[in-house]
Design brief:
The protein contains 13 helices and 8 strands. By secondary structure, the protein is an alpha+beta fold.
Length: about 400
């Protein structure tokens, strides 16, 4: 069998000085263990990394904020202080929480009432000169990891889905699985200790051009996760409380109308369509990225160029672990890319974004195939012929993977 064509060249994020394909930041960090991840984050937040963040963000206030976010997420990681706080009835959880003062004795308390309430930290996206500067509440480790990575500077001007944002989102998802949650396949979990609850189903990155033309701002987020809600005696109410808090992020901080009062558990397309998933507003990985990225001013122009991708956890939880990043279009990471759900599609329509820039197959034709098909013997092979010929079958394959 012939050797596969070269993978896409990956850009170097976060001031990465290393040379050579094998030493690329995305490839090296994809293989990081729990200890490696926490050490790298703490070094960055403690001014011990001379290249990250970039000079425009190397202020005392920004480093102080990075260290605060690091402390928050580390406390919710498996084994962390707020993960297994004894005062919380020994209930382990990757969500910052407190006891519900209105919860009565277990003998008489309704099982439909949660014994926990969401507790949160207020954090500020202070990551650049033209980034929206707002306070948002955070309480889940997965979103805190995304926040930390989003605070380290913009992507280069040449960044696209293949050379930057897909590998970035894959590293983000992989790091989440190293620090929290439990995978079905023990081989994929090792050597990390399992946490509580499945990791989020989806991970998302949204990005837009900097106004000064010097790069692209990006924002990372994950779908609902952090606990084994089904095994909690008051799981349904506890899960609903967490989902309601995520909805409030959308409702209270949206720059242009994405949701309205009274929409929660009411107007969601995924809830109301016969073949819907039942997901509610705020459940999706797009929650924090959309709040940050979708502008209110000059809506048509400002949101028409926003791009994004959603990546499912499929590539992480495998019997045979995916231990190295691969950017081939026919490998598992690209096949784990998903289209926006119908809730997110509705939001994209409301903010007048270009949905083609969020499509499952967007820029897939720029990624090489590990196993490119041989052209028909009687075909006139021209530049681009094989890619054009393969595009529809490959999309169909991805649809079949999604439906399984």
């Amino acid at each position: 069998m012939a050797n596969p064509p070269p993978e896409p060249d990956l850009l170097r994020p976060y001031g990465d000085p290393e040379k050579g394909v094998a030493n690329n930041w995305f490839r090296v960090k994809f293989r990081f263990t729990r200890e490696d991840i926490l050490k790298w984050m703490k070094d960055v937040a403690s001014k011990n990394n001379p290249n990250c963040p970039p000079e425009e963000l190397r202020t005392d206030d920004h480093f102080k904020f990075l260290l605060e976010v690091y402390d928050q997420l580390e406390s919710l990681a498996t084994g962390g202080e707020n993960y297994e706080k004894p005062a919380l009835n020994k209930h382990k959880c990757h969500i910052y929480r407190e006891l519900n003062p209105g919860y009565g004795p277990k003998q008489t308390q309704s099982k439909l009432v949660s014994d926990y309430l969401v507790k949160s930290w207020t954090n500020n996206y202070d990551s650049g000169p033209d980034v929206r500067n707002i306070n948002l509440n955070y309480w889940c480790i997965y979103d805190l990891i995304g926040l930390f990575l989003s605070l380290l500077g913009s992507a280069p001007p040449a960044a696209d889905r293949n050379n930057y944002f897909l590998p970035l989102t894959a590293v983000y998802a992989r790091w989440c699985s190293r620090l929290a949650g439990k995978l079905k396949n023990k081989a994929s979990q090792a050597p990390s200790d399992p946490g509580v609850g499945p990791i989020p189903m989806m991970f998302q990155c949204t990005w837009r051009d900097r106004k000064d033309g010097k790069g692209k701002w990006f924002f990372l987020g994950a779908s609902l996760g952090g606990d084994q809600f089904a095994d909690n005696p008051s799981g349904a109410d506890w899960q609903m409380k967490v989902q309601m808090e995520r909805f409030r992020i959308l409702r209270e901080h949206q720059q242009t109308v994405m949701v309205r009062d009274g929409d929660f558990n009411s107007t969601e397309p995924e809830k109301n369509l016969p073949d819907g998933t039942g997901n509610l507003w705020g459940n999706c990985a797009e929650t924090y990225p959309f709040v940050q990225c979708m502008d209110a001013f000059d809506v048509i122009n400002s949101n028409q160029n926003v791009q994004g991708l959603a990546l499912s956890k499929l590539f992480i939880d495998q019997k045979k672990p995916v231990t190295d990043y691969s950017g081939y279009a026919d490998d598992l990471i690209w096949k784990s890319v998903r289209p926006p759900c119908r809730n997110c599609g509705d939001i994209l329509r409301r903010v007048q974004a270009n949905q083609d820039l969020f499509a499952q197959a967007f820029e897939m034709d720029r990624a090489p195939l590990r196993n490119p098909p041989a052209p028909p013997q009687d075909a006139e092979v021209e530049e681009g012929f094989v890619i054009r010929d393969m595009k529809e079958p490959l999309i169909q394959e991805m649809v079949e993977v999604t439906s399984n």
